[in-house]
Design goal:
Its main location: membrane. By secondary structure, this protein is of the alpha+beta class. Helix content is about 40%, strand content about 15%. Helix 2 runs antiparallel to helix 14 and helix 18 runs antiparallel to helix 19.
Length: about 450
């Protein structure tokens, strides 16, 4: 199933096979004649399917707030300007990390303080739906299903209802500075050998960096195990402390002295970005959202799959990001309109141009500007050995305990088996409602 899922995800990008479709941006909206209700009260029940072609009418005096991460700010501001010019609806932007948006919306949504449009990875959708935070993508359901890959649609659907407006598919891979690295490493052991002659912490010279305290970027070291069994659906089967996961975490612990002699909190996205763009960080494990920054800095870089670990391919996490309409929004029609406008073929190509985000729209993924990119090929090759994040609500219980375990192993030298056993027990307690109250 994992292999099938990943190959489907590759097909979703239309970089291996051109998925037959009828177009990306569909100007003939197959929309219902009765527009969706504009009540700010939460309503997550799916509406009746669209019945007639008609432009969606935004609410009188509508204004929108959008949450997105700082890496995507250039695209959001550019597309918001186009949206405002076309529809006369002002759009404000607030910087909120994608992974934090659902938690923030739980607190701010009912109080009317949340953004009208949010964007987050598919692994959080189950939690968002169960909390009644997002409206179904009903008005633009037909257009969305026609334009986007099946795997993207599956990822932004929960319990048979389409909620999201897919925007991009992503994983992370290895960026390398071609001036410093002539031949990218195939194994982590090769990285360690390179670091012996390159590393010079006093002058901020490091062979490789990645966000050391986060499960998302450290999953390759744990991929000898698994998150949840039954293809990510069985909350009672957790494989993050099995033999394969412990072996990977044990190898991970050896890299502090050999590669990055810093505490995990000292290696942030901004720190890595600064070192890579200044030409002292030779290699960076990062996602397509970094392409724009690195390209604009004038760095001659390449992208290749992650180096193997202990003789096995390094499996990264992969996922789908999509726009969602806050169910407590005062302007749900305007929010629907913006979500669709910013997820069309044209919008996704603009996003690819500005930030490097890989399109979920089939026509956009087949566009020559995407197809001809060697950088995209590097991500595609990594997708081929990636693992999709589980999207069940219990996935939210995984991040904190495993992040803490990883940090304890790296920063404090804690025994990997002990750290992972403790983390898995915390996850089980949270899944079963027996976790201690904070």
């Amino acid at each position: 199933m994992k292999k099938t899922y990943v190959w489907t995800l590759v097909a979703a990008m239309a970089l291996v096979s051109a998925c037959g479709n009828n177009g990306g941006s569909n100007n003939g909206n197959t929309a219902a004649t009765n527009t969706p209700a504009s009540s700010p009260a939460a309503n997550t029940e799916a509406s009746a399917p669209p019945a007639a072609a008609e432009e969606l009418k935004p609410e009188e005096g509508a204004t929108l707030m959008v949450w997105e991460s700082k890496e995507e700010r250039p695209f959001v501001e550019a597309i918001a300007k186009e949206f405002t010019a076309k529809y006369g609806i002002p759009v404000k932007f607030e910087e909120v990390a994608a992974a934090d948006q659902v938690t923030k919306l739980i607190n701010d949504g009912p109080a009317g303080l949340g953004a009208d449009v949010v964007l987050f990875p598919h692994d959080i959708l189950g939690k968002a739906v169960q909390a009644g935070l997002v409206l179904p993508n009903d008005y633009y359901e037909a257009e969305t299903k026609t334009a986007n890959s099946d795997i993207a649609l599956t990822a932004v659907t929960y319990d048979g209802v389409l909620y999201g407006y897919p925007r991009s598919v992503e994983t992370y891979a290895l960026f390398y500075n071609k001036k410093l690295v002539s031949t990218p490493p195939k194994t982590f052991d090769e990285v360690v050998e390179f670091a012996k002659t390159y590393n010079d912490p006093k002058n901020n010279k490091y062979a490789m960096m990645w966000e050391l305290g986060k499960l998302y970027f450290n999953y390759p070291f744990l991929s000898g195990g698994y998150i949840y069994g039954d293809n990510g659906t069985n909350k009672d089967d957790i494989g993050l402390n099995n033999e394969g996961a412990v072996q990977g975490m044990t190898y991970f612990a050896t890299l502090k002295d050999k590669l990055v002699p810093l505490n995990s909190a000292d290696v942030t996205y901004d720190v890595k970005k600064g070192l890579f763009t200044s030409g002292t960080l030779a290699m960076d494990i990062n996602g397509p959202w970094s392409i724009g920054d690195y390209r604009n800095a004038g760095i001659d870089f390449g992208v290749v799959p992650l180096p193997s670990i202990n003789g096995k391919p390094a499996s990264s996490f992969s996922g789908i990001k999509g726009w969602y309409v806050n169910s407590f929004s005062k302007y749900p029609n305007a929010a629907r309109l913006f979500s669709y406008f910013t997820s069309t073929k044209e919008a996704q190509l603009k996003n690819f141009e500005i930030t490097g985000a890989l399109p979920s729209n089939k026509e956009a993924a087949n566009d020559p500007s995407v197809q001809s990119s060697e950088i995209v090929k590097g991500f595609l090759d990594q997708f081929n050995q990636s693992t999709p994040m589980p999207s069940i609500p219990e996935m939210t219980n995984v991040w904190g305990p495993i992040d803490a375990a990883i940090s304890d192993v790296w920063n404090k030298g804690k025994d990997p088996k002990t750290a992972l056993d403790n983390a898995v027990q915390q996850i089980k307690d949270a899944n079963n409602g027996t976790a201690p109250k904070k």
